[in-house]
Amino acid sequence: MALFDKGALNDDVRRREVFGWAMYDFANSGYTTVVLTAVFNAYFVGVVAGRAEWATLAWTAALSLSSLIVMLTMPTLGAYADLRAAKKWLLALTTMGCVVSTAALALTGPGDLALAIAAIVVSNVFYSYGESLTAAFLPELARREAMGRVSGWGWSFGYFGGMLTLGLSLAYVMSAQARGEVAAQFVPVTMLITAAVYGVASLATFALLSERALPQPDALRAEGLTASLRRLRQTLHEARRYRDFAWLLGCAVAYQAGIAVVIALAAVYAEAVLGFKQTETMMLVFLVNIASAVGAFGFGYWQDRIGHRRALGITLAGWIVMTLLAVAATSAALFWVAAVIAGLCMGSSQSAGRAMAGLLAPAARRAEFFGLWTFAVRLSAIVGPLTYGVVTWLTSGNHRLAIGVTGLFFVAGLWLLRHVDMARGERAAAEPT
Q: What fold is seen in the domain 14-207+235-430?
C-alpha cells in the first residue's frame, strides 16, 4: 500500500481505494492481452476462419462492429451514470457481461465463425464499457497535479495483470503442446483462464472502491435514459466551450487507431510476416507487457513534471519510430526491439491520454465526458484495424504495407495534439456548467 503516495490523492481518499481502483486495470488487462493481442486473434484467423483471404478482414470487422456499438451507446451510458451516481453499479454489470462472454469464446472451434464473431463483439462491448466507467473514477481519487502518476499506477497494475493471465495461459499452452494437443484444444482453455482471472481480480475493486458521486437533481425528474440523452445533447451543443477537449478527442482518434492496430494485429503480423509460432508470440507479448508496465508507472511521474501534452507528444514520436522498425524488420531480433519500444509507448501514451481527459472534464460530467472519450477511442478501434484489414485484403496479404500505413495515424495524432491548450481547457472545465 505504501506504493500509493497519499499526497497524490484527494483528502477523503484512502490508499486502499486507489488499490481497489487499480485492481480493475489488473483484472481487465488479461482480456486485451490474451483475447485481442496474443492468442484469440491469431486463433480466429488461423483456426476458426481457416486462414481464408478474408480472415484478417473478418477479425477487424468484428472488432469494428463492437466499437460502433460502444460509440453509439457509451456517451449516453456515461451521462446516465453521472445523473444517477451509478458508475459502480454499472461497472459490476458490465464486468459480469464481459466475463461470461469471454468464457463463451471457449466454445469456438474450426468453422464456428458466427459464434466467434458474436462472442468477441459482446465481450469487447462490455470490456469497453468497463474501461470507460473505471476511468471516470480517476478525477475523484487523484489531485489535479497528480493525475498523471495516479493514472500511471492503474495502467502499470493493468500490465502486471495482463502478464499474470498471459503467463498462466502460456504455461498451459506449453504443457498442452508437450502432450501433442493442437490449438483447437488448448486455446479454448486460455479463454476460461482469462475469464476467471478477470472475474476474481475485479472483486477487489467492488470491495474497496467507493461511489462518491451523488444523484443529480435532474435524475429525480428523469425517466429511463431521457435525462441522459438531454444532457448529452447539451454537451454536444456546448462543444465550442470545451474546444481543447474536442481537439484531444480528435488526437485520440488518430493515435489510438494506431494503438488499436498493435493490440489487435501484432500477433497476426508476427506470424504472417516473421513466422512466429504461438509460444513465441505469447513470449513477445509478455515482454511488451513488462515494457508497458515500466512505461506507465515511470512515465506517470514524469508527465506530471513536464506536462501531459508534451509527454504525450514524446510517446507519439516513439510510436512513429516503432512502426518504421516494424516495417524494416526482416528478422526476429529487430522486431523484438520494435516490440519493446511499443510497450514503453503503450503504457505511457494510454496513461497520458486518460490523465488529460480527466483534467479537461467538468467535475459534474466526468462519466459523460469519459463516455465521449470512449466514443473517440472506439472510433479509432474501427478506423485503425479496419484500415489494416482492408490494406491486407486489397494487396493480397501485404502486412508490411499495412503496418506502414498504421504509422500515419501517429503522425496525424502528433499534428492534432499541437492544437490542445491544457491551461485554457482546464479553465473551461472549472467554470460552472
A: Growth Hormone; Chain: A; (1.20.1250)
Nearest in space to 431 (alpha carbons), one of 180, 208, 235, 242: 242
pLDDT tens digits along 319-353: 999 999 999 988 888 888 988 898 888 877 877 88
Condensed to tens digits (0 to 9), the pLDDT of residues 395-406 reads 888 889 999 999
Residue 157 identity (one-letter amino acid): F
pTM of the model: 0.77
Task: List CB contacts of 276: < 8 A, sequence separation 6 or more.
Answer: 267, 270, 284, 332
The residue extents of the domains of the chain are: 14-207+235-430
Residue 111 to residues 36, 184, 393, 406, 427, Cα–Cα distance (Å): 19, 11, 20, 30, 55
Other CB atoms within 10 Å distance of the CB of residue 144: 13
Residue 3, pLDDT score: 55
φ, ψ of residue 170 to 5 degrees: the values are -65, -40
Whole-angstrom distance, CA of residue 302 vs CA of residue 299: 5
> Which of 201, 223, 243 lies closest to 21 in space, CA to CA?
201
> Within a 10 A sphere around the Cβ of 200, how many other Cβ atoms?
11
User: 144: which residues sit within 8 A by CB, 6+ positions away?
Assistant: 359, 426
Phi and psi angles of residue 307, each rounded to the nearest 5 degrees, phi first: 105, 140
Phi, psi at residue 268, to the nearest 5°?
A: -65, -45
Contact 370, 132 (CB under 8 A): yes
Q: What are phi and psi of 248, to 5 degrees?
A: -65, -40
Write the DSSP symbol of residue 107: G
CB-based contact 197:161 (threshold 8 Å): yes
- Chain centroid, CA 408 distance in Å: 20
Residues (pLDDT < 70) of the chain are 1-7, 10, 213, 215-240, 296-301, 367, 433
